[in-house]
Design a protein that fits this description.
alpha/beta; globular; binds magnesium ion; binds adenosine-5'-diphosphate
Length: 270
């Protein structure tokens, strides 16, 4: 079986307070009054082992919700996802050993140092401290993270440096599936390039399967083997970057992925 992810008919609803509604602390009251919104609508796709699969879409289109479902943090209302053949709902503990996630705002113990944060995570996974630190140091070196910052509090690091620590932490456990939810959003151009180089070099070479969301079309073009475009909880296109450009209907040879993205997302709105 060469499928890393098999996602079939995933649908997710959220309850959202109606506009101008008085807020309430009573969660049942809130649910009763709230509006049931469908944020994912029958999402179906497969990802092959070792593939870098991009999910592009406007803000609020459902990317992070889909990633949370794949990473067992949220339950789908309909449909099924398997990760390396394991169901994310019924086999969630086994799935958690195969995956790791880096989100746009990585959660840390901000007052603790980089090393302490790495060690905490290693403990959770039952890794030996010395081995974890050695591995983290190797990854951080590959990401061009200066060694002398390892004893600084995470809150004193820049966004770019924090994101590098989040990536090192996620890779500590050698996940077979890495979920990268906007890993380069808000990074300066240098840090962004270093993270992209790392994904394309080290991660790709280790045959880790990656799902990547990004708003940077050039990044998606460069890194992704295939790309899905999501709008209002629907996949509206899926292909290789070249395939998407070819299918866009324009005969221009220099059409960019950004042109294709704007064309597709605007078309569907019309
Ligand atoms: P994206 O990552 O593409 O920006 P999200 O998956 O974060 O989109 O959000 C999709 C939609 O679901 C948005 O309308 C968002 O407001 C809504 N949403 C996300 N999480 C929740 C939640 N926990 N409760 C209610 N609504 C949510
Ligand atoms: Mg998001």
């Amino acid at each position: 079986m060469n499928k890393a992810i098999k996602c079939t008919g995933i649908t997710k609803y959220f309850y959202q307070a109606r506009k101008n509604e008085k807020s309430t602390w009573n969660i049942f009251e809130k649910f009763k009054k709230g509006e049931r919104i469908r944020v994912l609508n029958g999402i179906t796709f497969n990802v092959r082992k070792g593939e870098i699969y991009g999910i592009l879409g406007p803000n609020g289109s459902g990317k992070s919700t889909l990633i949370r479902i794949i990473s067992t943090l949220l339950l789908p209302d309909e449909g099924e996802v398997t990760v390396y053949g394991l169901n994310v709902v019924t086999d969630c503990y086994k799935v958690r050993h195969l995956i790791n996630r880096v989100s746009v705002e990585a959660a840390f113990f901000k007052k603790l140092t980089v090393m302490e944060n790495i060690l905490f995570s290693a403990r959770l996974y039952g890794m030996e401290a010395g081995k974890a630190l050695k591995k983290a140091a190797e990854i951080l070196k590959d990401l061009d993270f200066s060694e002398d910052k390892i004893n600084e509090s995470v809150e004193d690091l820049s966004r770019g440096q924090q994101q590098k620590v989040a990536i090192a932490r996620a890779l500590l456990t050698e996940p077979k599936l890495l979920l990268l939810d906007e890993p380069t959003t808000g990074l300066d151009p240098k840090a962004k390039k270093e993270v992209q180089k790392f994904i394309l070099g080290k991660i790709k070479n280790q045959n880790v399967t990656v799902i990547l969301t990004t708003h940077d079309m050039e990044e998606a073009d460069k890194l992704c083997d295939r790309i899905a475009i999501i709008k209002d909880g629907h996949f509206i296109a899926e292909d290789t970057p070249e395939g998407l450009k070819r299918k866009s209907g324009e005969n221009k040879s220099d059409i960019s992925l950004e042109d294709v993205f704007l064309q597709l997302t605007e078309e569907v709105a019309a």
